[in-house]
């Protein structure tokens, strides 16, 4: 009986099943409540040097929802509804603040952190001012922060986004283009954007160890050449096997991220060597 009820709750929270208004409103209500109760938590996934040292250079902060009944929820379970309802903005600011504090508390002084920024934020006129205030409040040096944006976010209003990222760069905050290669892939905007980092989507990385002659190898090599020409750093996402890592190293990719190198986990766990995340 309890299990059945649990199952029903589960379905209520599955955004793919939350198709009617009642379900969506219920999830929105739960999101609000979770925010008030402090149930969102950033997990940190290490971003490592692909130079043989395996050294952790920084982390990507990824949101998790410690749901009292369902356990740890990933963004795929709730992000769409958080975005559609506009709640994502409050949730993200809460996450940014927590992430800054946690990095300061647990990260090496020279480590950086990337945070995922929903396209909605970049539409706001005062996003950059608010971010600067957050850094002042928490004490995190701007050089240690990188914003991850997706190609979709850029399409919205490229000129406005470019101007915002430009202002942020002027004060030391970096920008990364997330999931590169999966979106609209208009190469024309790349050189005009003030990007510090390109993140190669894991769809390409996961094809790498199948056969050295896959089209993914060609695509990754081309992205690396492009990034080099534009003086942009590269992070390969979703590295799961040693051969994927080795192929990327052989191609000269400087940084990587993925389950092989470390799963997302509470940052305090990264102090203990050899620990694994969730
Ligand atoms: P993303 O930014 O592309 O993040 C990478 C996703 O891949 C993460 O999923 C991460 O856990 C997962 N991942 C990392 N390494 C591997 C691997 O080796 N193999 C596989 N299969 N997956 C790997 P996650 O944490 O579920 O996040 C999904 C997406 O949700 C993120 O994609 C990002 O777009 C969004 N997101 C995460 N946190 C936040 C947040 O605080 N705010 C906003 N607005 N969006 C967020
Ligand atoms: Mg990301
Ligand atoms: Mg990504
Ligand atoms: Mg992604």
- Count every beta strand, where a strand is a DSSP E run of 2 or more residues: 9
Question: Major sheet: order of its strands?
Answer: 1-2-4-5-6-7-8-9
How would the global form be characterised? globular
Mean pLDDT: 88
Mind describing the biggest β-sheet? 8 strands, mixed, barrel
* Strand residue percentage: 15-25%
Order of helices and strands: HHEEEHHEHHEHHEEHHEHE
Distance between the termini: 29 Å
Secondary structure: helix percent? 40-55%
Radius of gyration: 19 Å
Bound small molecules, by name, code or SMILES, are: ligand C2E, magnesium ion
Structural class comes to alpha/beta
The total of helices stands at: 11
Low-confidence parts: 1-12, 273-278
Task: Provide a quick synopsis of the model.
This is Diguanylate cyclase. With 278 residues, the chain is of the alpha/beta class.
What does this protein look like?
- By secondary structure, the protein is an alpha/beta fold.
- It contains eleven helices and nine strands.
- A hairpin with a 3-residue loop joins strand 2 and strand 3.
- The longest helix is centred in the middle third of the chain and has 19 residues.
- It is globular and about 50 Å long.
- The N terminus and C terminus are likely disordered.
- The protein binds ligand C2E and magnesium ion (3 copies).
- This is Diguanylate cyclase.
